[in-house]
Amino acid sequence: MGATIKDVAKRAGVSIATVSMVVNNKAGHITQKTKQKVFDAIQDLDYKPNYTARSLVSSESHTIGLLVPDITNPFFAELAKELENSLNQAGYITFLCNSCEEPEREMRYVEELISRSVDGLIICGLTSLETTMFDELKLRGIPFLILDNRYALSDYSIHVDDLAGGKIAAKHLLTNGHTKTAFIGSQAEFANIGERYRGYKETIEKAGGTVTGFRTDLTRKGGQLIAQQVFEADVTAVFCSNDMIAVGLYDQAVSSGIRIPDDLSIIGYDDITFADIVQPKLTTIRQPIPQIAAKTVEHLREMIQEKSYSFKEEVLPVSLIERDSVKKR
Ligand code: RIB
C-alpha cells in the first residue's frame, strides 16, 4: 500500500494539517523550511495525493490549461517548458493545447479546458479570442492570464515592454550608422508586434532615417518567403519582429549571395536558442522567458488561492543581446 498523509506528517515531523495545507497550496503562512521538510518527505515516501478525492472536497483539480499558438516556434516551446516547470514546482499539472494560430480552435480549447475543471488558464500569444470569452471566464470565476500578446484592454496580461524593444533595436542600428532600414512585421495584426514597430519607426524617423515595412508569417518559412524583397530593397539593415523570421532570411542569404552583416545587418527579437547557433550569431532583443513564466505562475497561484486578488497587468523589460549580425557602416 502506498504512503498516506499520516506517514508524510510523521516523516516530516509536522502535523497532518500542515501536510494538507502544503499539498493543497494553502501554505502561505508556513515557513519555507517546513514546506521543504514536507516536500522531502513526500519525495522520500513517493506519496501520491488523491487528486480526485481532493478535488471533490476542495473543488480544485490542480490542473492548469496552457494554450500556445505554435509549439514549433522555439519561443513558445521555451516558454511552455518554463511554465510547466514553474507550475510543477507549485504543485500543478499542465494541460498543453496548441491552437495552430486558429481562433476557432483557440476558443474550443478554452471551452474544453474549462469543462475539464482546470483551476486556471494561461493563454499565450492570443490570436483572437472573443471578448465574450473573457466575460465568461470572469463570470465563472476562472482565473486566467494572457501572455505575450496583450488583449486590447490589457486585462490580466503579462508581457514585455515591446515599445521599448522596438526603440532599443532602432537605437542599436542608428548607433551603428544605419539609417535606411526595414522592418518585417507579422501577416496578422498582433498588438505586441504593432508596439515593436511603433517604437522602432518612431526612433528611426526621429533620427532622420527611413523604415520600409514588410509583412510575413512569424516563422522561418515566413522569413524565407519575404527575403528576396528585403534583399532588393534600398536598406542596409533590417529589424525582424521575431528571431524565426531572421533565421529564414539567413537561409535565403546564402543562395542570394547576400553576406550578413557585410551587405545587410540583421537584428531579431526573442533570443531563442537558435540565435546563438546561427552564423553569424544573431543580435537580438531578449524576452526574459524564465521571468515571464515565474511571474505568471506567481500571479496565477494568487488568483486561484485568493479570489479577491486583484491583478491587471505586468510588463517586463527586454534587453539588447549584441552578437555578430549587425555591422558598423
Ligand atoms: O516568435 C514568436 C513571437 O511572437 C514572439 O516574439 C512573441 O512575442 C510572439 O508574439
The biggest beta sheet, please? 6 strands, parallel
Mean pLDDT: 90
Overall geometry: elongated
The CATH class of the largest domain is identified as: Alpha Beta
CATH H level of the largest domain: which superfamily?
Response regulator
Name the helix and strand elements from N-terminus to C-terminus, one letter apiece: HHHHEHEHEHEEHEHEHEHEEHEE
DSSP, total strands: 12
How large is the share of residues in beta strands? Answer: 15-25%
CATH topology of the largest domain: Rossmann fold
Based on the model shown, name its key terms:
329 residues; alpha/beta; 434 Repressor (Amino-terminal Domain); Rossmann fold; six-stranded parallel β-sheet; six-stranded mixed β-sheet; 12 strands; 18% strand; elongated; binds alpha-D-ribofuranose
What would a concise description of this structure say?
With 329 residues, this protein is of the alpha/beta class.
What does this 3D model show about the protein?
With 329 residues, this protein is an alpha/beta fold. The chain has three domains: 5-57, lambda repressor-like DNA-binding domains (434 Repressor (Amino-terminal Domain), Orthogonal Bundle), CATH 1.10.260; 63-160 and 289-316, Response regulator (Rossmann fold, 3-Layer(aba) Sandwich), CATH 3.40.50.2300; 162-286, Response regulator (Rossmann fold, 3-Layer(aba) Sandwich), CATH 3.40.50.2300. Helices cover 46% and strands 18% of the residues. It contains twelve helices and twelve strands. The protein has helices at 5-12, 16-23, 32-45, 51-58, 74-89, 103-115, 131-139, 162-175, 191-206, 220-232, 243-256, 289-305, and strands at 63-68, 93-98, 120-124, 144-147, 157-160, 180-186, 210-216, 237-240, 265-270, 283-286, 313-316, 319-321. The strands form two sheets. The chain has a six-stranded parallel sheet with strand order 2-1-3-4-5-11, with helices on both faces. α1 (5-12) packs across α3, α8 (162-175) runs parallel beside α9 (191-206) and α10 packs across α11. The longest helix has 17 residues, at 289-305. The chain is elongated. The chain starts with a helix and ends in an 8-residue tail after the last strand. The mean pLDDT is 90. Bound molecules: alpha-D-ribofuranose. Alpha-D-ribofuranose binds next to β9.
